[in-house]
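[Q] Does anyone have a clean structure-token version of this?
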Amino acid sequence: MKNYAAIRALLVGVLLCQAWGASARLTAQAGARNDSALTILELKPNIHLIAGAGSNVVVHVGSDGVIVTDTGRVESADALLGAIKTLTPRPIRYIINTSADPDHVGGNARLSSAGQPIVPAGYRREGFVERDFAPILAEERVLARMSAPTGQQAPYPVAAWPTSTYSAVTGEQQRKLVLNGEAIQVMYQPAAHSDGDSLVYFRRSDVLITGDVFDVTRFPVIDLDKGGSIQGILDSLNRILEMTFPSTPFPYQEDGTLIVPGHGRLCTTTEVVDYRDMLSIIRDRIQNLIRQGKTLEEIQQANPTAGYRRQYGSETGAWTTAMFVEAIYKNLTGQRGSRE
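[A] Here you go.
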């Protein structure tokens, strides 16, 4: 029995190493590159994660130039551009947005204007005919969120808008690119965090960027007014698990897919499984209370996030635990959100 207990303890330790190994490796590297409060972490020899700009920014460097996935907040744009320049003198060739959130698209205009198109003739924006810009790719709804109908004030300047879109409405569920010798998939995630979310997968390097459908720093933001849903997030998390690889059969090695969430530490499939299961449990708790005829106030008092509140919850800030529970309640009862 003592030998069995020792073996079991060893296996538990190995599994914990799998779950935390990649993030621990990055923590050890964190002091290596730091630019104006931005931390640069090497994921693969040609791929870097830049943290501290608002959202996680991923930079792919190769012979074709630089591919940037998400651009952080507008106030961090200059620092982000400076951090990219410490990695390579090559120009920014392509920008990909995972959503229309301000902390994911804020640096679009600055980084795009500092870039160069792949085709020498390039494309030119209306009103900027003397210069070329790096194109910005996103799902069509991201452009709709960032622009505005004729005669109305757009929330973002024209220079920040996506210039290349793919549309799930017309049946294009993903956009495929080949840059820097890397096959890249930009895949639409229906009604998840919002109605315009994309996953970005670098296939050869086996690195997946999730945007805010997966955020290990908090309960996921379910933006009902912008088409988000709890089931859509769960579907997206299951899709992530279907397409990525754990370190099997050697869980102590760091050979599985590297998963970059919208915010927080680098993850493996283990963290996605835990996050998916947490959301499923909370959703089922709230659904059961709704079936019992409980009101939103009574459900809040029942604390359906028990066991997870300390890790993911917040009582203050832009997205609180109460707002998360309310969003699920409204989603499951067919109500719309009230935030716009």
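[Q] Thanks! Anything notable?
[A] Residues 1-32 have pLDDT under 50 and may be disordered.
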